[in-house]
Amino acid sequence: MDGVNYTLTTTGTTGIDSTGTVTVDSDTNVSLGGQKISLTTDGGTLASGELDFTSSGNIDINANDTITIDGTTFNITTTANYLATVTGTYDVDATGAITMDSDASATLSGAGVNLLSDGAHTLTLTSAQDIDVNAATNFTLDTTDGSIALQASGAVNGDISLTAADNFVLNVTGTGDLDFGESTTLNVNGTGTLAVNTNDGAITIQSGGAVNGDLNLTAADALTL
Questions:
Q1: Do residues 48 and 41 lie in contact, with contact meaning Cβ atoms separated by under 8 Å?
Q2: pLDDT digits (tens, 9 = 90+) for 76-123
Q3: All residues at 6 or more sequence positions from 67 whose CB lies less than 8 Å from its CB, including other chains
Q4: What domain of life is recorded for the organism (predicted)?
């Protein structure tokens, strides 16, 4: 059927039923309009057919309301960049595991970043290399009802270093225990004072060992006992 313009107007239902391929081709635009547009493969699910959108340029989906995409498995594959721009809240809710994997770096940033673990589950940070925590102001490590353990394993590199550019304070309500396997040195540089005080208790300095159990008190100035 040839002609400059072709218009098909029906007052009822118009159906195109073909046992072969149906092709709509235009050198300009193709428009489908209606109160509702349904594109369905045979059987109504992608399990019995496949629905493909292929474009040599962009694919643009605009809606004045909600866009809903449902499926058993949802895959997004891009050979370039993937950008999700949201002016409201962006929420990922899964009953299973959520995995983010990158061959380069992964960055989480925002006005505030919260990592929460539901219930009694553990929040684990694991790295094949270093874990570096930098804060412009304070860094707080707190538990509501539990302990805090700092452990450095390794006979050679298992070191723990605590460095304070200002004050260093240890406050213990219960028992304080410092147990070292090798030598221990307490140095106070400058004209500072090393004070060991108890409000209502004893101070015990014990040097054990029949050979190396020596106790040396050396004062460059006065020594008062």
A1: yes
A2: 888 888 888 888 998 988 888 888 888 888 888 889 888 888 877 888
A3: 61
A4: Bacteria
